[in-house]
Design a protein that fits this description.
CATH architecture of the largest domain: 3-Layer(aba) Sandwich
Number of strands: 8
Order of helices and strands: HHHHHEHEHEHEHEHEHEEHHHHHHHHH
Distance between the termini: 22 Å
Radius of gyration: 24 Å
Largest sheet: 8 strands, mixed
Strand content: 5-15%
Bound molecules: guanosine-5'-diphosphate
CATH topology of the largest domain: Rossmann fold
CATH superfamily of the largest domain: P-loop containing nucleotide triphosphate hydrolases
Strand order of the largest sheet: 3-2-4-1-5-6-7-8
Structural class: alpha/beta
CATH class of the largest domain: Alpha Beta
Number of domains: 3
Number of helices: 20
Length: 444
């Protein structure tokens, strides 16, 4: 996973200041020096680092931190907020036109992941936005790009428009748009040609395609693994084509993360998606706030919940979100969530998103078995509905009954109850429930 080194260093710095009852100017100076080094080491653009450090310092030395009851935690909150702002603040959604077809033009260097991302995006738009996409094979130069797009299209059952590699991309796009209208396909995703380096011929061609396609979205696909280069590429494409959004691919690799942290402030264009695997469902909307929390080891509970919710109908989703917000999430809800989790695949991937998970040594080697989930479910199933709703009612004799009923030990039952209480606490903090102001990271 990306950001591991950065996360570790930032967290070590934060841990030192976290519990401090008094934070001096000298403390902040020392901390900011470490934060600066951590960011530079993660390959964040030096100008970006400079202004980031200045912003945090200015706020950290401000009145409300020094006079607050938990200054150490206030400082951490500032770092989190500024990291979030650096990556763009809110999640920026893809531009969809209300006059179909929406046209999305995918651009980027060869190997960045354009073709793969085109397929992923088509699937995402069909699943999440109920769209009927058409994929357009506009890369006539890279050998096999057309076949690759056809293969992806077949895999996800989305039509692919191609005219071979003897026709100009301009002509292909003109025909593709007509085809989309004829077939009532409301979203056109154009996979364009890339080069190994930016050159004039390519840019002129892309500009012409842009002129014909009049895209609602020009999505630049950049490979996060290329670090500073990714930022330079983004800058050039933006200057020449005025892009509207960025997808960072290969964030599942062990990139140091500098690109994710610099692109937004260098180009002023939002990162809209992150590629998290080679697979066709490996595209996630990019949430700066969640990413900042992940980097700082505060976990990404919302993404876990969303992942778990992908197959659930919208109504259930809303109900669940409301429960989390109102803090009325019960063991009964937990039970049905676990059924969802079981269908999700590798649990260790999910666990890595949990707060503090990166501090657990050997987690990489650990594979949580479905068996453990079965045990937890057996325990909850042995409870009465009333107990599931009000676990505080579980006294010693009730626990004994549940242990006998589920065939699990008392320790396991106590562990589950403790975990559940902590999870609720976490949800409360993440959703800005009560107590957030007073102590945003209490219990961490
Ligand atoms: P294009 O030349 O820009 O069209 O690049 P491709 O779509 O062919 O992708 C280049 C390589 O990167 C392929 O091997 C993809 O499987 C891989 N790839 C693309 N996106 C991701 C991603 O998010 N994660 C990982 N691990 N690999 C990716």
């Amino acid at each position: 996973m990306a950001f591991e080194g950065l996360g570790e260093r930032l967290q070590a710095t934060m841990d030192r200041i976290k519990g401090k009852g008094k934070v001096t100017e000298a403390d902040i100076k020392v901390m900011m020096r470490e934060v600066r080094l951590a960011l530079l080491e993660a390959d964040v653009n030096f100008k970006v680092v400079k202004s980031f450090v200045n912003d945090v310092k200015e706020r950290a030395l401000g009145q409300d931190v020094m006079t607050s009851l938990t200054p150490g935690q206030q400082v951490i909150k500032i770092v989190r907020d500024e990291l979030t702002a650096l990556m763009g603040g809110e999640n920026s959604r893809i531009n969809l036109s209300n006059k179909p077809p929406t046209v999305i033009m995918m651009v980027g260097l060869q190997g960045a992941g354009k073709t793969t991302t085109s397929g992923k995006l088509a699937l995402h738009l069909r699943k999440k936005h109920n769209k009927k996409p058409l994929l357009v094979a506009g890369d006539i130069y890279r050998p096999a790009a057309i076949d690759q797009l056809q293969t992806v299209g077949k895999q996800i059952d989305i039509p692919v428009f191609d005219m071979g590699d003897k026709v100009s991309p301009q002509e292909i796009v003109t025909n593709a748009l007509q085809h989309a209208r004829d077939e009532h396909l409301d979203t056109v995703i154009i996979d364009t040609a890339g080069r190994l380096h930016i050159d004039e011929t390519l840019m002129n061609e892309l500009k012409e395609v842009k002129g014909i396609a009049k895209p609602d979205e020009i999505m630049l696909v950049v490979d996060a693994m290329t670090g500073q280069d990714a930022v330079n590429v983004a800058e050039s494409f933006n200057d020449l084509l005025d892009i509207t959004g960025v997808t960072l691919t290969k964030l599942d690799g062990d990139t140091r993360g500098g690109a994710a942290l610099s692109i937004r402030s260098v180009t002023e264009k939002p990162i809209k998606f992150a590629g998290m695997s080679e697979k066709v469902d490996g595209l996630e909307p990019f949430h700066p706030d969640r990413m900042a929390q992940r980097i700082l080891g505060m976990g990404d509970v919302l993404s876990i919940i969303e992942k778990a919710q992908e197959n659930v109908v919208l109504e259930d989703q809303k109900a669940l979100q409301k429960k989390i917000k109102d803090q009325s999430f019960t063991l009964e809800d937990f039970l049905s969530q676990m059924d969802q989790v079981k269908t999700l695949g590798p649990l260790d991937e999910l666990i890595k998103m949990m707060p503090g998970a990166n501090k657990i040594k050997g987690l990489d080697k650990m594979k949580m078995s479905g068996k453990e989930i079965d045990h937890v479910q057996a325990i909850i199933r042995s409870m009465t509905m009333e107990e599931r709703e009000n676990p505080e009612k579980l006294n010693a004799s009730r626990k004994k009954r549940i242990a006998a009923g589920s065939g699990r030990s008392l320790q396991e039952i106590n562990r589950l109850l403790k975990q559940f209480t902590e999870m609720k606490k976490m949800m409360k903090q993440m959703t800005g429930g009560k107590g957030k102001k007073k102590n945003p990271f209490g219990g961490m």
